[in-house]
Specification:
This protein is globular. It has one domain (8-73): Arc Repressor Mutant, subunit A. Helices cover 44% and strands 0% of the residues. The protein is an all-alpha fold.
Length: 73
């Protein structure tokens, strides 16, 4: 089965968003929106792509996500 890559994975901001989330060790749509001055849908696509890439966990019942990649020392 051919899985479709999340829309945000091809976004030019993907690597920057990934680095920011790992550095901050937290993630939210709002945080990504404010940091990169982008809209809600684009931020959501980036968050979804980060989840698919194994950087973030799925949201908990309260909507919180865990960063699964440790910050480099």
């Amino acid at each position: 089965m051919n899985q479709k890559q999340p829309e945000g994975a091809s976004d030019p901001l993907f690597e920057s968003a990934k680095a920011h989330v790992i550095e901050e060790q937290r993630a939210s749509f709002g945080m990504v929106q404010r940091k990169f001055k982008i809209g809600y849908m684009r931020a959501g696509n980036l968050i979804d792509a980060l989840e698919a890439a194994g950087v973030l966990s799925s949201p908990t019942h309260k909507g919180h996500r865990t960063v699964l990649v440790a910050r480099e020392a």
